[in-house]
Design a protein that fits this description.
The complex is a heterotrimer of chains A (about 300), B (about 300) and C (about 400).
Chain A lengths: L5 H42 L7 H18 L4 H26 L5 H23 L14 E3 L2 E3 L1 H23 L1 H11 L1 H6 L4 H26 L11 H11 L4 H18 L8 H15 L9
Antiparallel strand pairs in A: 1-2
Chain B lengths: L1 H27 L7 H17 L4 H23 L4 H21 L1 H4 L5 E2 L13 H25 L1 H11 L1 H6 L4 H27 L1 E2 L6 H14 L4 H17 L12 H25 L16
Antiparallel strand pairs in B: 1-2
Helix pairs in contact in B: 1-6, 1-9, 1-10, 1-11, 2-3, 2-4, 2-9, 3-9, 6-7, 6-9, 7-9, 10-11, 10-12
Chain C lengths: L1 H25 L5 E7 L6 H20 L8 E7 L4 H14 L4 E5 L2 H14 L3 E3 L5 H4 L6 E3 L4 H14 L4 E7 L2 H16 L3 E8 L7 H9 L4 E5 L2 H14 L5 E4 L5 H7 L1 H4 L3 E5 L6 H14 L5 H19 L6 H12 L4 E3 L2 H9 L4 E3 L7 E2 L5 E2 L2 E7 L2 E8 L1 H6 L1
Parallel strand pairs in C: 1-2, 1-3, 3-4, 4-5, 6-7, 6-8, 8-9, 9-10, 11-12
Antiparallel strand pairs in C: 10-15, 13-14, 15-16
Helix pairs in contact in C: 2-12, 2-13, 3-4, 6-7, 9-10, 12-13, 13-14, 13-15
Classes of the chains: A mainly alpha (about 300), B mainly alpha (about 300), C alpha/beta (about 400).
Amino acid sequence: MGARSRDQVRRVEDDLIAEFVHLTVTGLLVASLLALGAVGLSLTFGIARFANVAHPDFMMLGAYTTYAFNALGGVPFGWAALLGVGAALLVGVPVARLAYDKLPVTGTVQLLIISIGVSFILRHVVLFIFGSPLLQFAVELQRPYVWGPVRLTVYQIITLVVAAVLVLAVHLLLSRTKLGRILRAIADNPVLCEIAGADVARARLAMWAIAIGLAATGGILFGLNLVIQPNMGWDLVIPIFSAAILGGIGNPYGAMAGALVIGLTGEWSTLIIPSAYKEAIAFCAMALCLMFRPRGLWSAA
Amino acid sequence: MTEYLVALATIIGIQALLTLGLTLHYGVTGLVNFGHVAFYALGAYTSALLTLAGVHFGVAMAAGVVLAVAASLLVGTATLRLREDYFAIVTLGFSELLRLLLLNARELTRGPLGIPGIPRPWRNLPGVPDHVAYLALVLLAVLIAFGLSEILVRSPLGRTLRAVRDDDQAAMALGKNVLAFRLTALGWGAGLAAVAGSLWAHYVTYVVPDQFTPEITFYTWMAMIIGGPGSMRGALWGTAILVGVLEGTRFAKEVLPMIDAPRLAALRQIAIGLGLIVMTVYVRKLGGRTRPRVAPASASG
Amino acid sequence: MKLNRRQFLATGLAGGTAALVGGRAHAQPEALRIGVLTPLTGGGTVYGTTMARMYALVADEINKAGGVAGKQIQLFTEDAQTNPDAGVRGARKLVDVNRVHAILGTWSSAVTLAVAPIAVQARIPHFCVSSSPVISTFKDDDFLYRTAYSQAVISTVYATTAQKLGFKTAALLILNNPYGIGLGDSFPDRFAKVGGTVTGKVIYNPNQSSYRSEIQQALAGKPDVVLFGGYTPDGIQVFKEWFQLGLGGTWMGPGFALDQKFIQAIGARAAEGIVVVEGAPNLQSSAYKNADKLYRAAHNQEADFFASMAYDHLMVVALSVLAGNGNTAGDSIKANIRKISNPPGKVVGSWADASAAVKAGEKVNYEGASSAGDFDDNGDVQTDFGVYRVKGGKWALDRVIKFGELKTT
């Protein structure tokens, strides 16, 4: 240290701060993509009471339906995204209802295994229809706005805003509406809810629609930032589950916080350890959290 | 053709060891282990590395078993208190973490290059073709594993394990150390998975992290569910049917020649997904025999 | 209940047996039976699919022209699922049930190394497109061939290219698989030999949610050039994010990753100036032109590097069988592979030209669609390399690096 001049030290410090800011921005972007999947997963995990492994595949579904409207149908991206979410709901909700609500199966483990089957089917139906090429929306690549070490394109800003707005909307829905009260009541005690005369079937329908709608939006944003491929959802299973579990099941705010923890720790970790271990960080964060707070970071312990 | 049947029998035998292990975990004790492939990988890598270092095959396999059991106890101690679906996700994450370690610990495992040239035991026996000799070795292992598992299940220990599965509260009230019993079951199953891993490594003569994806775990679950969880004989049947179906679908193309190979491959995966769902429902309809009690979210409240 | 399961099992077994017997009945003794083992699901789907389609097209073309020495080519396609275990099961079925005379198309190095022992034991040729250096030294009894370049070779090519283009410093951004790691192991050494310095090596995993931090790290040492060691799928994601970061920098990478599909996906603006290194003569060869024509006619797309390699595999095997007067035994095919593909001889690229020449008793030199198609003692191809730069959304040839030049550097 003594040999170095003060300027050099300061430059190293500046570089480090710049890198840290860059990683933070990247972490926030990753977190936004994960959050939309994790919030819906957390909701269904809390209410339907099983781990829906096929949930991230609904993200993939949203990306493909939007692709069909946008790149194949020539619809401008914004409208295609809306139509795409609609189409994903039209396909996804009946699939979820049929596989998880209508089959004569109730055990959490059985449902978990059925969801593995659903995931297999969704991915390979898409592979069958669209084939294997990597797909892109018909959208021009953007140059970033640069504010010091922060570099973001318009679409990345849209990603951050959409994720934040939707998570807020879910929060308002759960806390301020009648549907929200019913959903929370079912999560607490489904049997009591039914006895009290709540329309549990309709509430579950709404739950699937919210969860799949959020996932489809997340998938579209993912496709906008990266690429669209049949395995894009499957590859997100562990980070999204990690985020949902970290946040405490059934707690959408928690899921968002969990996504932030996963996104940021993953990116920050590259300052210290090789980036090849980045994915492992998500898991380690979850495992550590569960060891000390078995019901998630934000649960009332 | 005979060679193919011998190969099939070998594959079934090795997979059956995995299924027997999972049956001890889930079928008998109710542990929702979704990281089974991790113990398989530990057995395979330990055995491969040690035999290449000149250690005798039997000793190398034993070392793999010891390591896998130790790992299972470590994971179990940390996570067995969790809710069953949390435990599922944590074990799934553990298996992926291990795969990442195998991929990145290049000094030890050669990372993504894998380890070729693993010697196969029971070679060049007089009068017996190598692949038949190896099948005999595998069948011997299956026989021993099956016998031990049956003895275990029928022993007082087995009865306690089932009691722990069916009502852990009651078992605890009777003064049983539930965690210790669960760890015992986890260790036994992990050991069997390690034997399977070792046998597979020496059969294929090559190990690489790509072999140890969660798909192996899912296939094992399928086999167990097909056979009816909880029954050791069911584990054998289930495995035979699973491998028969997986391999049998290869011959489907001779029935459906009008579809090109890439689409047929996607169809095959769709069929596997559908089969998994149907089997899950079907097994339940059999009367839910020895199906573990489904704990309604013991963490609620 | 117990009865149910028994019945179920019996039905399953009966069905399986029927299928097995059926499969056998289909195999005609006259045919040249070729096992195709490409990834049709999983991570390598993009490449495996085009390869499987190309095998079908070549077989069709040869069969329409009367087959190989009177034998029709019969393809047996199995899905390797980009997974070594699935590859092994597929290969066992191809070898034991279909009794194939060659296995073609294993894609990832992991699948290749898992399948190779089966082919060697069955004494049949095995053609792969994997690039791990381990494959060169694998004890294959000369049954394992590859049309992709070993990373050991291409590292030298990259180092030479960088030197000739005046790049003094380089960073690596490589995929965590045998190909990327192989590149990372061999390039720094080769680059140092021509006076270059490596400023950093960043390894990434496939299917990440973001590559921004990896890109930043690779560019941190301000290298003259960043060497990209991945495939088209991850390439698109990396370059998309790189462009959107607006950080600048020059890139270099392999032609099979930075191909036309790639340029189309990220746009000509983002791809401008990228240095692309690729086997040189292929695009002009009659083999490539024919392969491209076949693929365009059937699938309305250009034949990419992997489709070209598939074309070469089946052509080399078919010509070797023809040169052996229809002998389909693995040892005979093996003995003829270098005879028909290495110089000297009349340069041929399409089945029509090549079969006519072989029948006329001429010595032929098959020049492949993916490379010159000359195999060395390890079963690796030897070829010259072309260095291109992307201009206006197209590759523009910058210079050619001769294979001979490489050995001396």
